[in-house]
Design goal:
Layout lengths: L1 H7 L1 H16 L11 E3 L3 E4 L2 E11 L10 E7 L4 E3 L6 E2 L3 E11 L8 E7 L10 E7 L1 E2 L34 E8 L11 H16 L2 E10 L11 H16 L9 E6 L4 H9 L5 H11 L5 H9 L4 H8 L5 E9 L6 H12 L9 H10 L3 H14 L3 H16 L4 H21 L3 H13 L3 H12 L5 H18 L2 H7 L7 H13 L3 H15 L2 H13 L3 H12 L3 H9 L4 H4 L2 H5 L2 H8 L1
Parallel strand pairs: 2-10, 12-13
Antiparallel strand pairs: 1-3, 2-3, 3-7, 4-5, 4-8, 6-7, 8-9, 11-14, 12-14
């Protein structure tokens, strides 16, 4: 019947069969951007720019050859976008090929942007791409994490600027020192042998010179030896024994600055000793660090270390120093005027009288000892009327700089920086002083003029050999080295006994970016111990992510994001964590923060 129907009406046959014939020759849509890629695979900030190359090919097939093909590149975030000119195509036998290098001046919005290739064909006026492909997400901007004094809303206000001191130590140049009380194996009884007696004598001398104690920490530690117990009890007993010894030795410290703690089943102190150990090669140390940084538990690392040739000798040399209590002190000298001088000061500030009865040194000490910025400003301002000296001009400029740190109003900041620069200009006309150059450099850093700032800081370094000044100046200079891409040089800047979390973090960044994960990990851990700040944890998370230790990275990242909103936002877009961002575990650690933000 069907045959007879089609025989009588052949047109009907064609209508029925034609769709089937057409469907059999329809080809799958060609992916014209399949070969499009970006090198490097993750965009990175380096020095002041983002550099990458886009390359690929567009297939030419007889039936599907694209008409008027074009390739465009788009960099876009929620805040801004940048559309580049079409990439020039080279026509070959079987395809169009393309390759183009890009160098972009870095802008902050780029950190959360994505790089997209867009394919156009057909009319040249076409505005909507035929196909799109995301080549990269975000920009790795790790060097810009360097701490240079910028204020973040949910973090402590960084101290910036250097006063010219009177010879007495200013608060931001406080001294730190470590003292070690040693014990016999398994013992918490302090023996007053030569080593321990000398340690107590040295501690007393340090506190006599620096009676204003800022922090005082006693940490009982235990070595991995069998006789050292199977809990942290021995470490705490050692710390408590030292506390009693200090009390008996008439060393009394305020409870508000004191801390008593213990550390057990932790290789941190061993790693500190290993860093300074000179009886083994650098290659052998790398083997030890490979074990210590593998993210395994304490016992597994212990077994791994014992398999390394020569470890028994290292243990004999270093383990005795781990049967100890460590005393870590940060303190500074006292400053100020006596009662009679204070009365003369108050009279001079309230009267317009040039004969105050106080000399330049007395005024400088008064300014240094004044607790509030407003009080310092009054004293240094009066000094500019009484003395032709760089001290009041420089120190009043520092007051302005620190007042600028305490406002979020950009216009107010700019006004205070301008006033500070004018004061520093007046100081420089009187005499050349490294403090003036440092402070000019610090203001330039805060204004984003890092290259000009680096020149000022470099000039300041050659004018003095004062270790306290150089430690502070080189810290900022090292942070700029990181931002400038001179990572190896930056590691050399931090060869000072720092106590601030920011300095340990910057040191860790320098090592991390130069590929020395062992020293980077140690410095990030020191940053955490110095202040339990989120940046140290973030550094440890970066190391773990780069080493393929996903679980360790998530643990450290969770600690980091709960310490700072800025870190929380950065972690969401940082390409360093791209490999773990697709996991459920990654978003699990953010959920509590999301809930807290909603509340």
């Amino acid at each position: 019947m069907i045959y007879q129907l089609f025989k009588k009406k052949p047109g009907l046959f064609l209508l029925a069969v034609l769709p089937l014939l057409c469907s059999s020759i329809i080809m799958p849509e060609t992916d014209f951007l399949k070969d499009s890629k970006v090198t490097p695979g993750k965009l990175e900030f380096f020095r002041d720019s983002v550099r990458f190359e886009v390359a690929g090919s567009i297939p030419i097939q007889s039936a599907l050859s694209p008409r008027n093909p074009r390739i465009s590149i788009l960099l876009k975030s929620s805040e801004n976008s940048m559309l580049f000119e079409d990439i020039e195509l080279e026509k070959n036998v079987g395809d169009y090929s393309y390759k183009k290098a890009f160098v972009l001046a870095y802008e902050p919005w780029m950190e959360g942007a994505f790089l997209e290739a867009q394919f156009f064909q057909g009319k040249k006026s076409q505005t909507q791409p035929y196909q799109k492909k995301i080549l990269a997400r975000g920009v790795i901007a790790t060097p810009l994490m360097a701490k240079v004094g910028k204020v973040n809303p949910d973090e402590p206000i960084p101290q910036v600027g250097l006063y010219i001191p009177t010879g007495m130590m200013d608060a931001d140049l406080s001294r730190s020192k470590e003292f070690l009380i040693r014990y016999d194996v398994g013992s918490s009884t302090v023996k007053l042998n030569n080593s321990n007696t000398q340690a107590i004598a040295d501690l007393k001398a340090f506190l006599t010179e620096n009676p204003a104690v800022l922090s005082f920490k006693i940490t009982g530690i235990q070595s991995p030896e069998n006789g050292e117990g199977k809990s942290s009890k021995l470490g705490m007993e050692r710390a408590e024994a030292v506390a009693r010894l200090l009390k008996d030795s008439n060393i009394v410290i305020r409870d508000s600055v004191s801390e008593l703690t213990a550390r057990w089943n932790d290789w941190f102190d061993f790693r500190l000793l290993l860093r300074e150990y000179e009886k083994t090669s650098t290659q052998r140390k790398d083997q030890y660090y490979a074990v210590l940084l593998d993210g395994a538990d304490y016992q597994s690392q212990s077994l791994g270390l014992r398999k390394i040739p020569g470890f028994s000798q290292v243990a004999r040399d270093l383990f005795p120093s781990l049967r100890a209590a460590k005393i870590e002190v940060v303190a500074k000298p006292l400053t100020g005027l006596n009662q009679a001088q204070t009365a003369l000061l108050q009279q001079a500030l309230s009267e317009n009288n040039a004969n105050t009865g106080l000399d330049l040194a007395d005024w400088a000490i008064a300014g240094e000892a004044a607790p509030r910025l407003e009080d310092k400003a009054k004293i240094y301002s009066k000094m500019t009327e009484l003395f032709r000296s760089v001290i009041p001009y420089n120190n009043l400029a520092v007051v302005k700089m620190r007042q600028a740190q305490r406002t979020l109003d950009q216009n107010a900041k700019d006004k205070l920086w301008k006033e500070a620069n004018e004061l520093l200009y007046q100081a420089a006309k009187i005499d050349t002083d490294p403090h003036i150059l440092h402070n000019q450099g610090q203001i330039l850093v805060l204004q984003g003029k890092t290259w000009d700032a680096y020149k000022k800081l470099s000039d300041a370094s050659v004018l003095t050999r004062n270790k306290d000044f150089l430690m502070y100046n080189e810290s900022l200079r090292g942070a700029l080295d990181i931002m400038r891409g001179d990572y190896k040089l930056a590691t050399l800047r931090f060869d000072y006994p720092y106590t601030e979390p920011k300095d340990f973090f910057n040191k860790g960044l320098a090592y991390f970016l130069s590929g020395d994960f062992a020293n980077a990990s140690l410095s990030f851990e020191e940053s955490v111990m110095a202040g339990r700040n989120g940046y140290g944890f973030y550094g440890l998370a970066m190391i773990a992510a780069q080493s393929g230790q996903q679980e360790v990275a998530l643990v450290q990242l969770e600690k980091a994001i709960h310490a700072s909103e800025l870190i929380y936002q950065k972690a969401l877009v940082d390409p360093i964590f791209e490999e773990i961002r697709s996991s459920d575990e990654f978003f699990q650690i953010f959920r509590p923060s999301v809930s807290n933000n909603e509340n």
